[in-house]
Design goal:
The chain is of the alpha/beta class and 156 residues long. It is built from 3 helices and 6 strands. A 6-stranded mixed beta sheet has the order 2-1-3-4-6-5, with helices on one face. Strand 1, helix 1 and strand 2 form a beta-alpha-beta unit. Helix 2 crosses helix 3. The protein is flat, with a radius of gyration of 19 Å.
């Protein structure tokens, strides 16, 4: 019986990532979901409905943190694909010359002045996420009751 893996990302897995999953799990079936994930509860239901054993989420950290709690209770493994920035350029890098597309991917960013940069990110390894802890400290004092047209508990 093969392991069912859900890859939640807009980006397809790299060849090196697929090979590492095969090394870890042997035979596996991978499905990519690149749509909108509204919250952790939605992802929990999606995983249950489709019977996934492993999830590789590329999602906001707050969703991952909550999802991991549910996944641990359900016996679902959650993996983190560690990526390391190895290069940054001001023009689009060329596959094969500027980066190895089997191990590396490119992420384009634009700063507030419209300047584009391309970051070459290299796959390092997978980690099992056991939990995520966000240590938060309030900054400033905001009284939500003083914001016009907003009731306590609402967000803009």
């Amino acid at each position: 019986m093969s392991v069912r893996i859900l890859w939640t990302s807009r980006h397809k897995p790299l060849k090196a990532q697929l090979e590492e999953l095969a090394r870890i799990y042997g035979e596996y079936e991978l499905k990519q979901y690149s749509g909108f994930v509204p919250n952790a509860e939605w992802l929990v239901e999606y995983v249950k409905k489709h019977g996934f054993d492993v999830v590789v989420p590329v999602l906001p950290l707050t969703i991952i943190a909550e999802f991991v709690q549910h996944a641990n209770r359900e016996g679902v493994t959650v993996l983190w694909a560690e990526m390391k920035q190895v290069k940054m350029t001001y023009s689009p890098p060329v596959p094969g010359r500027d980066y190895n597309p089997e191990w590396e991917t490119v992420v384009m960013t634009r700063d507030s002045n419209g300047v584009e940069t391309w970051k070459v990110m290299r796959f390092v390894k997978f980690h099992r996420i056991l939990g995520v802890e966000l240590k938060l400290e309030p900054v400033g004092n905001i009284n939500i009751q003083k914001i016009p047209n907003m009731k306590q508990g609402e967000t803009s």
